[in-house]
Write a structure and sequence with these properties.
- The structure is a homodimer of 467-residue chains.
- Chain A has three domains: 65 residues, Winged helix-like DNA-binding domain superfamily/Winged helix DNA-binding domain (Arc Repressor Mutant, subunit A, Orthogonal Bundle), CATH 1.10.10.10; 121 residues, Alpha-Beta Complex (Aspartate Aminotransferase, domain 1), CATH 3.90.1150.10; 243 residues, Type I PLP-dependent aspartate aminotransferase-like (Major domain) (Aspartate Aminotransferase, domain 2, 3-Layer(aba) Sandwich), CATH 3.40.640.10.
- In chain A, 42% of the residues lie in helices and 14% in strands.
- The first copy, chain A, has 16 helices and 16 strands.
- The first copy, chain A, has an eight-stranded mixed β-sheet, with helices on both faces.
- Chains A and B meet through helix 3, helix 4, helix 5, helix 6 and helix 7 of A and helix 3, helix 4, helix 5, helix 6 and helix 7 of B.
Amino acid sequence: MNYGSSDRILAELRAWIADAPPGAQLPSTRALTAQHAVSPVTVQKALRALASQGLVESRPGVGTFVRSLRTVRPHDYGWQTAALRAPAHPLPSPAAALRTTGNDVIALHSGYPDRELLPERLVHSALVRAARSDAAVSRPPSAGLPELQSWFAGELGAAMPAELSAPTARDVVILPGSQIGLGSLFRSVVGAGRTLLVESPTYWGATLAAAQVGVDLVPIPSGPHGPDPDELDRAFAETGARAFYAQPTFANPTGAHWSPEHAGAVLEIVRSHGAFLIEDDWAHDFAIDADPVPLAALDDSGHVIYLRSLTKSVSPAIRVAALIARGPVKDRILADLQAQIMYVGGTLQAAALDVVSQPGWRTHLRGLRQQLAARRDLLVDAVTQHLPSAHLEAVPRGGLNLWLRLPDDTDLPRLAAACEARGVLIATGDDWFPAEPTGRYVRLNYAGPNPGAFTGAVQIIGDCLTG
Amino acid sequence: MNYGSSDRILAELRAWIADAPPGAQLPSTRALTAQHAVSPVTVQKALRALASQGLVESRPGVGTFVRSLRTVRPHDYGWQTAALRAPAHPLPSPAAALRTTGNDVIALHSGYPDRELLPERLVHSALVRAARSDAAVSRPPSAGLPELQSWFAGELGAAMPAELSAPTARDVVILPGSQIGLGSLFRSVVGAGRTLLVESPTYWGATLAAAQVGVDLVPIPSGPHGPDPDELDRAFAETGARAFYAQPTFANPTGAHWSPEHAGAVLEIVRSHGAFLIEDDWAHDFAIDADPVPLAALDDSGHVIYLRSLTKSVSPAIRVAALIARGPVKDRILADLQAQIMYVGGTLQAAALDVVSQPGWRTHLRGLRQQLAARRDLLVDAVTQHLPSAHLEAVPRGGLNLWLRLPDDTDLPRLAAACEARGVLIATGDDWFPAEPTGRYVRLNYAGPNPGAFTGAVQIIGDCLTG
């Protein structure tokens, strides 16, 4: 859309209004269209903008008028303070990782891959096809488009050994992004006032969702190989928790990747406590030099609830994820989700299915793997060279991030501010700890824009750290 | 998408597998493509379907194999019963109004307008433009696309008298449909364990959202002219509630429409109790013979929180709504929403803005008004003629529904089942009562498919009622 002509007419009309008396009638849309040589849509857009700024008012069927002058009074919304009270579950602010930025900074803070890592051509053409199809004007079933449910079930089923029974399309619930799935899972599987075990550090979006639902978190220390099984066993026994939220594959932020033996051991503990493991397979499409198998592929007893999103790997505009759960827990979750979203729009579901069904999707994923490898290695090299005081416990074999421990006397907020002042955005590690951080960490995303600037950015971080 | 060739190859492969020994390798995708004269995509789709049914397993880089036979055992998910416990806030089932149906029934039960009442051409072309734009691969700010925020602010501002200050784009939060907005509002403005006043009857989705959040509902009797102001005043005083949820314009299900005097009186009561009025303007685009002004247009003191959806009037695939709230309450709500959805996909926002910015949108709304009028009158005539024992308290001046009271000895579930057996779906009224129903009601939607069948459908209801 072209906002240029709209901005121009807006500026001219503002000048006209400044000279006009209150109540003066503006020229008709037709007259303005001719006078400014723009389309009626552009004129109406400008008039709406003026109305929303309180400069004109429209009287339908009569015309548009300069608004009467009124005394400017500051609004007093103080009464709301008493009506709202303090929040029952104060929410942490959304992490800096969600922040959108301009092109004038080097963004190592984000949780999203840069657009050059997206299958852009596939996305545009899939959305265009979906836009022209019946999906654009019809309402799909609450649990999702059956063909898309089938695709997700098939993907997980294909990773399962033959002796286990694969999930079916009926075990799949389509979600508008995985964040709402986390909240829904925590509410329906755990419940307010009850306990959920989580890795520490863990994904900040999970901590946020848990705070909103009012779930109590018990953190389990987790290193580059996954959570400590003894600690996990003890925490289940001590708390009576019935659920553990984890990212077994390229965990965010640590990049941790559980070995098959470790995954088996954790699953055994979860089973022995009659509990659920909520597997957030956020980095399924971001493998670099490992071919991970979801933990859910090792389970057909309903203990693993599997969350798989396409938002990050397909497009931030295609907010489509799936939840695969077997047994009555699926009905519990679906009822909770329906109360929040009723259903997921069909256009996005059809487009998502279209993208992942194209031969080009596999080609894209192969190319993505190489790009991520090159970017990761570039950033690791820069860190080794220019951030000698930072400790990288393990080079991640997938995912989007490096997780660096800085010296214990680092003032993280000051470091982040100093870097930002020099045009480099970093994510400080505290957001990923459900309790007090165990060290000073930063998370650097190697999937952001402009990898050519990575080395310079890490130099700047090094300068700010020592300076 | 064409599923025909995929179904065919699927059937043939199933037959092949039935004759093959466990572990046998299937022909390569290339061979299957040639043999069945279909595209590789179709072959892969068929193989995925077979994998999700557990008939074959794919070993990446090696091939696809017939799965080993295994003993069929019924799954035992009984352990989940103890892990899940009984739900803290049992949810009512989503109302029958959400049910999707085939073409072989006359659907008077739905809450959605038929596709012939949608601006289908505008929707397809807006989605195609959005699909081709940058919105398809970028992530908008959490509160929404600024231009769309502006549009919603401008729409409400244009309805405000000049002496009030209009909302700005910053007061607007874009939502992926209004249902999630209801939950978020109830949680952040009211809070679990606290009281929300609602009309009775009221929208079932609001009752559902309140149950999920754990908010206590206090129903205020509401007739064709709106809620009783004395009852409302008394309920605020008695309960200490700080919020009232209402649909002042063509309420669902009753069609009630508050006069300006009534709206002023209610607003005064809300203000005097330092409370919020949550205005759900669901039928903004469904006026028939009234030109309603939102209650929010009478308030610039932050007492009215305004919810406006485009989903029903634009397309069920374009799940876009807005919430306009002024003062600190907006920040409270936005924080809650971010924890659930992070952001709303840009494609749908761009497409929604495109549709409502087209000159064709106004033309569409004018045509829609006439169609709704004709459909409503047709259904009212049919009811008058064939359902003499039903009482229609008021002919709605907008919205999508007739709300009929039936004789007190009507067995509603039996009536609905009898109608369904004869191919007519109706929505029984109990879902709309937050407490015990005060009578036997049905809601008949005059915006559903095939209005030519309305008269026959009402005859069938009449037969079932007397039979």
